[in-house]
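Prompt: For my understanding, could you write out one protein's sequence and backbone structure tokens?
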Amino acid sequence: MSKLDKIVLAILAIEHLGFGIYGLYAPNSIAGLVGYELGSEFAYSEMRANYGMFTALGCMALLSIFIHSMARQTYIIYSIIFSSLILGRILNYFITGDLVTSIIVAIVAEAIVVGLCIWRLAANRQTAETIN
């Protein structure tokens, strides 16, 4: 595994472990950041379920630094999940016409994650083909 992959995976791990654990621990704070109202037990459960997923993604990225065989699958899973978030946000725009700055920032951040993952998948594939 290249040093660059370790850096990319470390960034993904820190970002998603940080947000994930914060959302699990303090769902009201995260809800306030995005403008949610947590008015029921189910709302808390949904918030913690989503941030539990981010925590799991961060753990995958962290483990991939040490278990190199996980890196490819981690990049693929990140690409799929964050592409689906981007698709949902774009679909929301076509349905509601709303595209405020915070949504644009989220799309850009998610696109950076997808771009990094696809870039590393392609680079690692070329490296593997060169070796073989």
Notes: Helices lie at 3-25, 27-34, 41-66, 71-96, 101-131.
